[in-house]
Specification:
about 130 residues, alpha+beta, 2 domains, 6-stranded antiparallel beta sheet, two-stranded antiparallel sheet
Length: about 130
């Protein structure tokens, strides 16, 4: 009986491993340090490694889940945004990426249960 329980446990563990691995491999961002989209043109926005692409939120907004710390998320975010043109418009701060011709109007993170959530809002062109 113990042998059957051990075998059953191993098969269930193997099945879970295969399912989880398959989901992560087919996720468009989990093993990458950037989010790429090809909607109108190819754009690339840096994100922390092991960020799980959750969904497209609205027209030009994306959400990711990650186990990475807020410090790690902020480091990637700040390294990216510090290299962009900072704009102030209608009391809000926006960042313009001249090389890709996109405006980042939100790059934020927050806690969601055991994960941290990353939200990136952008638009094409110099949007102000």
């Amino acid at each position: 009986m113990k042998y059957i329980n051990k075998c059953m446990f191993k098969y269930i563990a193997l099945l879970l491993f295969v399912i989880i691995s398959t989901v992560l491999i087919y996720n468009s961002t989990f093993f990458y340090k950037e989010y790429k989209t090809f909607k109108n043109e190819e754009i690339t926005i840096p994100i922390p490694l092991f960020s799980y692409y959750k969904r497209l939120g609205g027209m030009y907004g994306v959400t990711f889940y990650t186990l990475r710390s807020k410090t790690s998320i902020d480091k990637v975010k700040n390294n990216y945004l510090n290299n962009l043109e900072k704009m102030s418009c209608h009391g809000n701060i926006y960042y313009y990426d001249n090389a890709q011709d996109i405006t980042i109007w939100n790059y934020s993170s927050g806690r969601h249960h055991i994960f941290n959530t990353i939200y990136i809002g952008y638009s094409y062109g110099k949007d102000c």
